[in-house]
Design brief:
This protein is of the alpha+beta class. The protein folds into two domains: 1-87, no CATH class; 91-261, Pathogenesis-related Protein p14a. The chain has helices at residues 4-15, 20-26, 32-48, 62-79, 100-118, 142-152, 180-198, 211-217, 284-291, and strands at 132-133, 139-140, 165-172, 223-233, 236-245, 257-258, 273-276, 279-282. The strands form three sheets. It has a four-stranded mixed β-sheet, with helices on both faces. It has a two-stranded antiparallel sheet with strand order 1-6. Strand 7 (273-276) and strand 8 form a beta hairpin. Helix 4 (62-79) crosses helix 5, helix 4 packs across helix 9 and helix 7 packs across helix 8. The longest helix is centred in the middle third of the chain and has 19 residues, at 100-118. The radius of gyration is 20 Å and the shape is globular. Residues 101-249 form the SCP domain. Pfam families: CAP. This is SCP domain-containing protein.
C-alpha cells in the first residue's frame, strides 16, 4: 500500500508536468532524511489542495507551484553534483580552499536563475525574457572547480582553458570580518544583472556586451565549477572569484531556444536526461540514485 505522502508527491509532480515514469523513480527512495523532505513537501501540497482520490490531480496556487518547482529543482541540483554522498562534513572536491556551503551558494544561484528564465519569470531590460525550451540544470564539476582555483591563484587569471567558458572578477576585500559569501552573491548578481542592464534581443543572441550573463544562462551548459582566492598586494587586499562552464556560447548565436519549457524527458537533448519542473537534468539515473544518498 502506497504511503499517502508519496501519493501526494506524485500528484504534485504531475501538476508540474513531470513524466509519470520520472515521478515514480523519484518517489521510491528509502533514505530517511530525503523521505522526510519529500513528506514535508507533500504536506505543504496537501494544505493547499489535496489530490482527488479518484484522479490523483492537484490544483496548486501560483505561489505554491513556484515553491514546489524550486524545491524539486534544487534537490536535483544538489544531487546531480555528486559522485557519492554529499554530507556537509564531507568535501565534494579535494580542494581545501572551498567548502560545500560555498559550492551550494554558486550552484543554487545559477540554477534558480536558469529556472526563472526557463519558466519566463526573468525580467529583460524591457518586459520579460522569453521562455526557454530545453534549459539544463547545472551540476557541480570538480575538474572545473580545480581549473577555477588555478585561475584565481594570486595575482589571478591566467589564460583561459580550452572549450570552457569563464566568468572572472577581482573585488576589494577589506578585512577578515568580511563575509566571502556576501561577496559571492554581489559578484553573481553583477554578472547576471548585465543581461537586464544591456538587454537581450528577440533571438536571445549572445554578444560580448552581455558575456557574463550569457555564460551563466547558456542552455547547453550542464556543468559548473567555481573557486575563490584572497590575495594581497602591498596594502591592498582583494578577492579573486571565477566560475567555469562546460559549454561556450558563440557570438550572435542563441543562448537558448524560445519555446515552452520541457514537459517530458524526450524534449531534453542530452542522453539519459529527465525533465523536471521545466528543466532538463542530465544523467537521470545517477541523479535519482544520488538523491537518496544525500
Amino acid at each position: 500500500m502506497q504511503n499517502e505522502s508519496v501519493i501526494l508527491l506524485l500528484c504534485v509532480f504531475a501538476s508540474l508536468d513531470v513524466s509519470s515514469t520520472a515521478a515514480r523513480r523519484l518517489a521510491i527512495g528509502r533514505n530517511t532524511s530525503v523521505r522526510k523532505k519529500l513528506a514535508e513537501l507533500a504536506r505543504k501540497a496537501n494544505a493547499e489542495r489535496s489530490c482527488s482520490n479518484k484522479s490523483n490531480n492537484v490544483a496548486l496556487s501560483s505561489s505554491m507551484k513556484t515553491f514546489v518547482e524550486s524545491f524539486f529543482v534544487l534537490i536535483l541540483g544538489a544531487a546531480s553534483t555528486l559522485e557519492g554522498k554529499f554530507q556537509p562534513k564531507t568535501p565534494l572536491c579535494a580542494n581545501p580552499l572551498m567548502n560545500n556551503n560555498y559550492r551550494q551558494v554558486f550552484l543554487t544561484f545559477h540554477n534558480r536563475k536558469r529556472l526563472d528564465v526557463a519558466l519566463g519569470r526573468e525580467p529583460n531590460s524591457v518586459g520579460m525574457l522569453s521562455l526557454a525550451r530545453g534549459m539544463y540544470l547545472l551540476s557541480w564539476n570538480c575538474d572545473l572547480e580545480y581549473k577555477a582555483q588555478a585561475a584565481v591563484a594570486c595575482p589571478g587569471f591566467p589564460p583561459n582553458f580550452a572549450n570552457t567558458a569563464a566568468n572572472m572578477k577581482r573585488s576589494p576585500y577589506p578585512d577578515a570580518s568580511t563575509s566571502v559569501t556576501d561577496i559571492f552573491y554581489k559578484i553573481l548578481e553583477e554578472w547576471w544583472g548585465i543581461g537586464r542592464t544591456v538587454g537581450i534581443d528577440s533571438n536571445n543572441a549572445y554578444h560580448r556586451s552581455i558575456a557574463s550573463f550569457g555564460k551563466m544562462v547558456f542552455s547547453r551548459a550542464t556543468k559548473l565549477g567555481c573557486a575563490y582566492q584572497i590575495c594581497s598586494s602591498g596594502d591592498e587586499r582583494y578577492i579573486n572569484v571565477a566560475c567555469l562552464y562546460n559549454a561556450v556560447p558563440r557570438e550572435n548565436e542563441p543562448l537558448w531556444i524560445t519555446g515552452p519549457p520541457c514537459t517530458n524527458d524526450l524534449e531534453c537533448t542530452h542522453p539519459n536526461s529527465l525533465c523536471a519542473g521545466g528543466m532538463c537534468v542530465e544523467g537521470a539515473t545517477k541523479v535519482v540514485y544520488n538523491v537518496y544518498n544525500l
